Amino acid sequence: MDSEALATFLTVHRRGGVSAAASALARTQSAISRRIALLEEELGAPLFERIGRGLRLSQAGQALLPHAEKVAAALGDAAAAVEAAKSGAAGTVHLAAVGTLASSGLAAVLARLKTSLPDLDIRLQTATSAEVSEKVRAGDAAVGLRYYEDPSPDLLCKIIHHERLVIACAPAHPLAGKRLKSLVRLSGERWLAFPQQPRRAEPYAEAIFSQFLVRGVERIDWTAIDSLTAQKRLVEAGFGLALLQESAIAEEVGQGNLALIRVADLDVSVPVACVVRRSAFLSRATRALLTELERGEL
User: Fold this and answer.
1) Measured between alpha carbons, how far is 202 from 51 in angstroms, rounded to an integer?
2) Most exposed: 35, 36, 97, 198, by fewest CB within 10 Å?
3) What is the pLDDT of residues 230-289, one digit of tens each?
4) Which CATH code, of 3.40.190.10, 1.25.40.10, 3.30.43.10, 1.20.1250.20, is assigned to 163-270?
5) Angstrom distance (rounded) from CA 124 to CA 131
6) Where are the domains positioned within the chain?
7) 89-161+272-293: same fold as 3-70?
8) Rounded to an integer, what distance in angstroms lies between the CA atom of residue 8 and that of residue 157?
9) Global pTM?
10) Other Cβ atoms within 10 Å of 237 Cβ, number
């Protein structure tokens, strides 16, 4: 078993099939298939099962996956460490963040960092909280920003900020700018919320439903919208209310495009965690980014 075989295995898994992996690795399909066959022969077990036109991991493949990811991440660390020693430049930092955290607050953090390290190159990719952890664990990102801590022993997680959730409405809404005694007053409104998708939903996504449930309201009229931007635009147009991150709508509120409804018995916030891989190589730029993020000014 060598690193190239494990890299091929990871690519087939991540791309979902031999054809896509061959394209990504600039190899022929037969070369990819042969490489996987040799690895399976060496391990004495099939690593993939065919589903339709794609492939999914077998039980043996699932067992191999975390170890293959660790090998790939360690090789990436080794290359990064050597490059840092050779050039001395700040280099590139791969940052994975939940899309709703890629707001003006994060932009300000990155701008400050760029001022102190002009040669820094930040590569930002967005994902769900679970996917952020997966990317950091696999070495595809050096730093991750997600909601809530991840208890995985492979990761070091630190809460750096608490994101306050507020009720957004259109400026023309009759209750815009008002303060209510209880959220129950809004149980008859149309709500916009993130879809309830098991295994892919954000941990905070069901906050509005749980807040009504604890107040004895079992059902509300709601529409699933899987984009923060789409939710904001629909709220602006008067199509409903939404429970959103205060920082994510600060610009729209300041410009008068959105308004807030304050509720006396509603005090909801969700923790934002910074994630790095345990024992990972942290470049000078990565350490600088972590220092900025830990100031908690998102």
Assistant:
1) 27
2) 198
3) 999 999 999 999 999 998 899 999 999 999 999 999 999 999 999 999 988 888 889 999
4) 3.40.190.10
5) 14
6) 3-70, 89-161+272-293, 163-270
7) no
8) 30
9) 0.76
10) 10
